From TrEMBL:
InterPro entries: FAD/NAD-bd_sf (IPR036188), FAD/NAD-binding_dom (IPR023753), Ferredoxin-NADP_redctase_2 (IPR050097). This is Thioredoxin reductase. Residues 2-266 form the FAD/NAD(P)-binding domain. Homodimer. Its cofactor is FAD. Keywords: Flavoprotein, Oxidoreductase. It comes from the Bacteria.
Amino acid sequence: MFDVIIIGGGPAGLASALTLGRALKTTLVIDNNNPRNKVTQASHAYLTQDGISPEALRSNAEQDVNKYEHVQRVLDTVTHVEQATDHFIIQTETTTYYARKLILAMGLKEILPDITGTQACYGTSLFYCPWCDGYELRNRSLIVSVPAAQVRHMSKLVLNWSQDIVVHVADDASLDDEDKAYLNSKGIHLITSAITEFQHKEGQLTAVSFADGTSINRDGGLIGIEVNSYFDFLQPLQLQREDNGRLTTNNFGETSVPGVFVVGESKDIMPSQLIDAASIGNTVAKFVAMQLIVDND
């Protein structure tokens, strides 16, 4: 029986494990080495680690965690989780484990637009987060393809890095008059015809083709993606969710099921930078450790 089992070995999960290991709590990290950021070549805004690849950061973090005798890591895939009277049963493809507390750090499922060329360009010249990759896209000709509700916000944001942007409405919704007025005031060209292809050379965007037969040359872009945390293995827990799909939690990261906590991108259903995910993992792990200490008192 472990004190804590952490599902997910990314920055949030490993930061949680590090804190729990230092709190002398027996901890198991279960990870299947399939991170959402596997296409990312370099991560930024992490003090002392700016420009490091997510893979290298994870490797360094694993070495840090491995120093603590109370923490174990296994490479496996969780298939089923259920609650018993005073503990949790975690079934993987190979083994059954038991824990008093559970931390969900599995990140998010990511769904890219079903457009030819997206997969090849994603992570190289097409991105979703200007805070993560806007610097690398600075002063380039960009396409910003997002749902209508995000057009004004994303346009305003991306203009910080490049003045040469074309905006594309990625859904069937219409822009309101204020959105149109904003784009006109900034001289931003608006396209509503569906994108049919992101043309590229080895992942480097060269042009964007549209259903109306037109095409424009672009060097890079920001695109809208869909994310969620609906993992099949969680269903037996029947965790409560908000209207937007976010898992309901209290101020300590604990879900509607006592003893089940959530950290990282899974917590807010929002893609985040590595430093943010690690920070949440560290903070929530302290609450988990404190709960264990109180339980044992």
